[in-house]
Amino acid sequence: MNQHSLEQIAAQLNSSNVSDRILAMIELQKETMPAQDAYPLIKQAIYDENVQVRGMAAFSLGVKQTPENRAILVNVLEADPDYNVRAMAAGALGYLEDQQALAPLTHAFYEDTSWLVQFSAAVALGNLKNVQAQAVLLEALNSKNPLLQEAAIMALGEIGAISVIDRLLQYVNADDWMLRKRLAEALGNLPVPQSQAALNDLQQDSNPLVVEAAVRSQQKLAKLL
Length: 225
What we know:
By secondary structure, the chain is mainly alpha-helical. Helices cover about 70% and strands about 0% of the residues. The chain is built from 14 helices and no strands.
């Protein structure tokens, strides 16, 4: 990235026009933008007065990875006044796959009052693939919010939580087809006979998207078992 282009993006980011700042963030998120060039400008944008700009900046810190990103994202997760931005920060921490994010993500799940932040934190915990997240994910599974249950099922599959397979199989006949679909996807990461049996049942599901997910996971399991 040449200096002239960076200066143009910096000028957009300092504009009083929100649209200009959003366009600057789009440029910073492009694959052709090196992380080391983008980082100083993203760091500036994370404190922008506009929620959309801050959210884009938080997302960008998960994609444009540098050693400094985790600390900034944790601060955003804990302190930003807008739940959308905090949710973006939680998701970005998952992208980093930094195991030091386990504690702040767990704290966010238990303490944040927004279900969206809790959802993002649960998904991010799955991205860490750390079995220490199992306890908090089981809490999410017990939630009355089906979206949090979805996140928990996905994440428990990601961390390979075979020890709680019986808890997951309770969703084979869930009324919500999305829960059944998430279960079908998760079982592809749990190579035990119970997963195969459940996937056989899910391939007979009334929803074609559940069936499709079950077929893919069955094929995946065939290579693992």
